């Protein structure tokens, strides 16, 4: 078939769901969110995050207090530096001969700089890894829009056009890849089994899988539009599927854990009260647990790849405070970070595309995977902004 895949490799131009022919990528692009690295960076950074929404600095300062609590430094950039080094080391260990470049959406080093550096170094066929695992506008499509913007002439570098263009593809969303999931399993296992071994009953322990809330209208448009994923769209369905896998695996490996209950909760909403966002909020759920006979709660940051601000502030601070007020034992389990299984898994995704691995041979732990190499038409629409040009997917 022919398609309108923007700035994609020759193989991706087919528009196929999975690219099962080898592609000779010559560089990897690690695409991150970015974060301030000093007090003077905080407000400019938040302006970048909220650009186009007309939010005054006074309101931004309310969010800025979270960053100022940590000296104005978000941990996310240093975490991405560590991930960059780990990915490069793993790629080198496998002899792939691929340099890894790193660029952010909202703060230095910016994506424009990273892409320009890669181009100047002679690279033309780039494969991107975004630091987000799930379907939604902000975790998938917005990165693809960034790639199209950077490669285009209107507001970017124009490196994707002309006689010697660069292309950027993107690895499949990795929410259910074993390498991403393993660190979460280890955290759930350790927290739950420790409490059970201490004498708590299974019905006195609760596991809450937490992820970033998004507007309900956007959530319902996450994933391909020709599939019904239920309430909350593909975004919620993917989280639920991974959480179910983790708890089923826990019950299979530890008989006493079979009756431990769990739920999917949301955090870090930032929209106006009149706008419906995904619920329930993690803090509201924690407050209700004592009435259900629960004595210990493990919060699993399932939607996050590292311990950045939404984890350190919203979970380690606010959720823990809610648990303390409720008289509950509290554990916040680990994020993938630079866990060896996660790093190896990301490079496995790169090798899938280098080798053209058939979809039937790609590892995944839920029935939703393996997810698509080329995003499907209409995926992850932003209701407020509509469809903008986006790389690594079939338009719109």
Number of helices: 12
Distance between the termini: 16 Å
Which of globular, elongated, flat, extended, rod-shaped describes the shape?
globular
Structural class: alpha/beta
Mean pLDDT: 96
* Relative helix content: 25-40%
CATH architecture of the largest domain: 3-Layer(aba) Sandwich
Strand order of the largest sheet: 2-1-3-4
Would you state the CATH class of the largest domain? Alpha Beta
Main sheet attributes: strand count, strand direction, barrel closure? 4 strands, parallel
Q: Low-confidence spans: pLDDT under 50, at least 5 residues?
A: none
SSE order in H/E notation?
EHHHEHEHEHEHHEHEHHEH
Structural write-up:
The protein is of the alpha/beta class and 396 residues long. The chain has two domains: 12-174 and 339-361, Rossmann fold (3-Layer(aba) Sandwich); 178-332, Rossmann fold, CATH 3.40.50. Helices cover 37% and strands 11% of the residues. It has helices at 42-49, 57-68, 76-93, 111-120, 137-151, 178-197, 216-219, 233-253, 282-288, 309-312, 314-326, 340-355, and strands spanning 27-32, 100-104, 125-130, 167-170, 205-212, 261-267, 296-300, 329-332. The strands form two sheets. The protein has a four-stranded parallel β-sheet with strand order 2-1-3-4, sandwiched between helices. Strands 6-5-7-8 form a four-stranded parallel β-sheet, with helices on both faces. The radius of gyration is 21 Å and the shape is globular. The mean pLDDT is 96.
């Amino acid at each position: 078939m022919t398609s309108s895949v923007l700035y994609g490799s020759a193989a991706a131009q087919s528009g196929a769901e999975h690219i099962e022919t080898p592609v000779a990528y010559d560089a990897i692009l690690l695409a991150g969110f970015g974060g301030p690295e000093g007090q003077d960076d905080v407000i400019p950074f938040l302006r970048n995050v909220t650009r186009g929404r007309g939010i005054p600095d006074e309101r931004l300062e309310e969010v800025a207090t979270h960053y100022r609590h940590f000296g104005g430094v978000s941990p996310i950039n240093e975490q991405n530096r560590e991930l960059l080094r780990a990915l490069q080391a793993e790629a080198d260990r496998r002899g792939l001969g691929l340099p890894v470049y790193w660029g952010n959406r909202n703060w230095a080093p910016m994506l424009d700089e990273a892409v320009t550096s890669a181009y100047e170094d002679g690279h033309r066929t780039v494969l991107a890894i975004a630091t987000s695992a799930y379907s939604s506008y902000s975790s998938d499509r917005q990165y693809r829009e960034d790639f199209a913007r950077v490669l285009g002439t209107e507001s970017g570098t124009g490196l994707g056009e002309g006689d010697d263009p660069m292309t950027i593809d993107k690895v499949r969303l990795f929410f259910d890849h074993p390498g991403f999931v393993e660190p979460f399993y280890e955290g759930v296992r350790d927290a739950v089994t420790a409490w059970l071994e201490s004498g708590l009953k299974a019905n006195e322990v609760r596991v809450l899988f937490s992820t970033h809330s998004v507007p309900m209208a956007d959530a319902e448009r996450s994933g391909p539009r020709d599939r019904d994923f239920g309430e909350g769209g593909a975004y919620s369905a993917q989280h639920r599927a991974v959480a179910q896998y983790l708890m089923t695996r826990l019950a299979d490996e530890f008989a006493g854990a079979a009756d431990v209950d769990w739920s999917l909760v949301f955090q870090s909403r930032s929209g106006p009260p009149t706008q419906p966002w995904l619920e329930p909020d993690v803090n509201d759920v924690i407050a209700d647990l004592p009435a259900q006979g629960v004595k210990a709660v493990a919060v699993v940051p399932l939607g996050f790849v590292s311990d950045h601000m939404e984890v350190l502030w919203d979970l380690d601070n606010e959720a823990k405070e809610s648990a303390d007020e409720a008289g509950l034992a509290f554990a916040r389990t680990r994020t993938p970070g630079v866990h060896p299984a996660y790093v190896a898994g990301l490079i496995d995704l790169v090798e899938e595309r280098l080798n053209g691995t058939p979809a039937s041979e790609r590892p995944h732990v839920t029935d939703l995977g393996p997810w698509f190499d080329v995003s499907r038409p209409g995926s992850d629409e932003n209701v407020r902004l509509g469809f903008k040009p986006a790389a690594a997917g079939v338009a719109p």
